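Student: I would love a firmer grasp of how sequence relates to backbone shape in proteins. Thank you; the sequence and its tokens follow:
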Amino acid sequence: MPLMSSDGSTPDVPLSEGLEHTLDEWEKAAAAVLRKSRKLADDAPDTDVWSRLGTTTLDGIAVTPLGTPSLSADLPDGGLPGQAPFTRGSTATRELDGWDVRAWFTDPDPERTAKDVVTDLENGVNSLWLSVGTGGVRIDALATILEPVFVDLAAIAIDAPFEPVQAAQALAGVIADKAVTPAPGTSLGGDPIGARFRGRGETSLDVVEELARLAHPLGIRAVTVDATAVHDAGASDVQELAYSLAAGATYLRVLTEAGFTVEEAAGLIDFRYAATDEQFPTIAKLRAARRLWNRVVELSGVTSAAAGQLQHAVTSRPMMSRYDPYVNMLRTTVAAFSAGVGGAASVTVLPFDEPLGLPEPFSRRIARNTSSLLISESHVAAVTDPAGGSHAVEKLTDDLARAAWQLFGQIDATGSLDAALDLVRSAVDETVSARALDIAKRTRPLTGVSEFPNLHEQLPERRPYDRPLEVHRYGGEFEALRDDRAADPVFLASMGTVAGYTARATFAANLLAAGGVDTVVAGPTEGVDDLLAAYDEAGKPSVVALVGNDKAYEAWGADLVTALRVAGATYVVLAGKADVGADTTIAMGLDALAFLRSIRQELGA
């Protein structure tokens, strides 16, 4: 039916307008905006907008700023949702309630956990993910905690690295006592390879067969390839994907050698991936993971629906911050959106206070409501694979899949599990170093940590974990400086009027605060004598940072530096690039961590 205007006529709606314009026109329009904002030189060619607006992942894969038909013209067919290669989804349609909202529980206090389980299930959660055994929910309390749970409706996934068989037996006993068919997605969660990589828990592959013998009669999953093990160590998207394929292939071999058919073995394995606030790479990663796993099992002889990967996505732990933890709500919202759009069957939003300790009722509520709002109010799950057909996403999916397949081949060719994990660790270490440099230079800004920190914030107090995971948090080096605040401040020598110095004073204060260094601002000043009086009133801090405009620097910057040194300043920093005799300068693009460490040394911290 054609669109009709209020007077009954058919309006002229240019639905094909975008197809009538050329790339040259887009480049020209985009270049004009960038030049206006001074992000592109006046004499730079318009084609430079691609490099200015595009990004490159840590795997060296380009994320284009604009999707064009040429990007996806030669890509393999992604198929339909629910059909091989499952790029567009492991099932044909979404459930009516969208994805499975899965809450995480690790509190050793059985009474608190039992209460949290009921509260979450009554308020939007569909399934439970329990850390069981050492460091988590007590095994002997599992039956009591799950007593009010309808396990035929709510899937139960456990994670018990230290006592995988005992925990699995306890869950199997609960299911047997209830005499029901467990809900799809229920998993015993064994992952000795992940335990070996993390260096915690049972690492023998022998437990895989034991868990499979328990799971198979119940129709549930026995093994979870938990790729967050490498993600938590700092892995890139490609490394996470390649590791998951290598671990999954190893479990397939173990299970088939134990007597299971390859289709039975594939049906006993599920996968867990991290979802970050980099939305397009996350969407593409989950799509690529399904395509890759389909290829592995296809080569193994699986042609049924068992080739569809069952995915559980968890919002990234490394991306979360201990400082300004409320920003984690924003990070996890984007991550949950990406996981849902990417087609994960289950999504866990970690509470915003997860880096601080055991979550409280408020943070648990925010976590479960994040998915509920995305599904019920934003209708993100109304369409299966909403990113499908996007030229940029299809290209990124293909690039990730090809790079991960190549790395998987290298891992699989090592010949032993220990050698394979050594190769993965070496690759992850390189990624950690590359990311650390980006974070140090603040080209990957972390709000509340490396950018816009609140040095005087009061962090919420949380009960400590019994045995916390080792996580390489992206902002860890900045947070370590914040943990050990410098006792003495830096004096901001604000030259001239408020309008003249505010921009650079704000930049310097935020930079120093990110390293646990406080500042004292002089306020508007009219010259060297005026500023020296403010310096004396501030107690003559040993480190001074000049903040003003270029005109003030040229007029009296050198005289001020000389006077400050005579007055007692031992180290002078200048915000900008003028030559006034300062010891160092600061500007965008500097290695912030190196600078902060040097300043702290000057302060005696």
Summary: DSSP finds 21 helices and 15 strands in the chain. Residues 100-423 form a domain with the TIM Barrel fold (CATH 3.20.20.240).
